[in-house]
Every structure is written in structure tokens, then in C-alpha cells.
């Protein structure tokens, strides 16, 4: 996870000074583009990140990384940020022809814009903020996310401090939480501006960052910060979002808000965890 830490540490630390509440609703929204999103139970990463990062030794390609299994240049890792399995998505990934290798029998959960309405609204699964943000909002709906905090980041090259799953379990009753929440994945430019990958190196890939806001039963707000992840545009209508061990993008900081006598709640940093994920976003054919 060397590459991600080198990029991520400065801005992860800076982000802790930012209020936990999302900014997505701060102003009048720009034009929004509905998408369908599949969140997978396992990361499947076929990008040649060794060449992508111009490094001959450290990152995933066709060799083992940190003892994890890699075959045919395909990296597999269990996701710690996943869906509620209420609806099934596409079980096949990388089905775009050469040079990609199709992988079947994956376990996806599907979230579709304006579906699964609840007491306060329907799912929001869209490109928002001028097309620069992927928004997946389950608040007020019948849908949930499942996040595992069972893997505090304790490796020698992890930042400090490591997360404390006991704090999460104290607030939620378990270190695997099932919650409504808002996921935003931010890119500096519109997702439609990304070029389609022309090889497994995919020099067209973009660097994004993500935040997930959620609350415990006491009404306290929590936030997960992934300071760095990769976005690959697989064809004109499909984007893959990958945070994993190949480049350290799985490392995420977790914070919570505590009541305070001050005007703003006090931000308490819980520590760093490994929270890999693999998400596909598909823009429906117009």
C-alpha cells in the first residue's frame, strides 16, 4: 500500500479539520445524471498498476502483492464496504473484450436512481455537482450499506493511529455496521471527460477521493474518508471505482462528531482502517 500512502497522508490529515456533515446539499444542485450502481462483495482489479505508476516492483500486475493471490494479472480482495444484497446486479465484470479478462460469479448489490423509496424519499444514484461527483444516497429509503471495521490498519507502512473497532462496536453494537448513508466520490473534472481505457495500464484512469457519511442510533454523525482511489472508464457508459491494496487506496480514516458546548461539534478521529471497495456505475442508454 505504499503508493496510496505517499499520496494520501497529507490530505487525509487535512480533511480531519473539516466538519463531518456533507456539503453536497449546501447549494442549488447542478444538472444531475441518473446512473445504476453495482457494489461488489469482492474487489476485482485488472489494471496494471505497476506500469500505471511507473514502478517496477511495488504494485499489482501479474505478480503477488503482500502475499495476496494474483493470477493472470487479476487482483482479488474482499470488500469491506458493500451492499445490503437486497437487489442483484451484474455478476460479470470486465466483460469488455480484450485486453480485459471477463470474471463471472461475482456478488453485486444494485442501487438504481429513484428506486426503493422509503419514508423520506427514493434512492439518489447520480453524477452530481456538474458531473464531477458520484452520489449514492440511501438516507430515508429502504436500502442500506454494510461496512466492516474489522481490519484496523496495523501494517508497518500504515499511518497512525490504527482504528479501534471496539469504539465502533460500542456505538453500533457490532464492528460490522448496517446503515443508511451518503457516499460521494469526487473527481476534479466531469466523469464524462475521462477517456476510455485503451489498455490494461489505462493511463486514462483518474484519481478521485471519497467520503461516506452515516449516523449511529444516538444520532451522532460519522465519516469515512478515502483520500485516494482510481476511476477507470471501461466504455462510454461504464465506470469502475477501485480502492484496494494495490496502491494503498484501501486505507481510510474514520471520524465521529461528539456534542460540544462550542457552536460546532467536536471531531474525534477514530483511526485508520482497511476498507477496500469495488463499485461500477453505468449510465443508462438514453
What order do the helices and strands come in, and which of them pair?
Layout: H1 2-15, E1 33-34, E2 36-40, E3 42-45, H2 49-52, E4 70-71, E5 74-78, E6 81-83, E7 108-112, E8 124-128, E9 133-137, E10 145-148, H3 165-172, E11 176-179, E12 181-186, E13 206-215, E14 221-235, E15 238-243, E16 251-258, E17 266-274, E18 277-282
Antiparallel strand pairs: 1-8, 2-7, 2-18, 3-5, 4-5, 6-10, 8-9, 9-12, 10-11, 12-13, 13-14, 14-15, 14-16, 15-18, 16-17
Low-confidence stretches: 5-21, 23-29, 64-68
Radius of gyration, rounded? Answer: 18 Å
Tell me the number of helical segments per DSSP (H or I, 4 or more residues long).
Answer: 3
The chain-level mean pLDDT equals 86
What gap, in angstroms, lies between the N and C termini? 39 Å
The fraction of residues assigned to DSSP E strands is 35-45%
Helicity level, as a percent range?
under 10%
Structural class assignment? mainly beta
Shape: globular
Largest sheet: 12 strands, antiparallel
Strand segment count: 18
Q: How many domains?
A: 1
Instruction: Note the run of SSEs as H and E.
Output: HEEEHEEEEEEEHEEEEEEEE
Mind explaining what this structure looks like?
By secondary structure, the protein is mainly β. It has one domain. The protein is built from three helices and 18 strands. Strands 1, 2, 7, 8, 9, 12, 13, 14, 15, 16, 17 and 18 form a twelve-stranded antiparallel beta sheet that branches. The protein has a three-stranded antiparallel beta sheet with strand order 3-5-4, with no helix packed on it. A hairpin with a 4-residue loop joins strand 8 (124-128) and strand 9 (133-137). The longest helix has 14 residues, at 2-15. The radius of gyration is 18 Å and the shape is globular. The relative contact order is 0.23. Residues 5-21, 23-29 and 64-68 have low confidence and may be disordered.
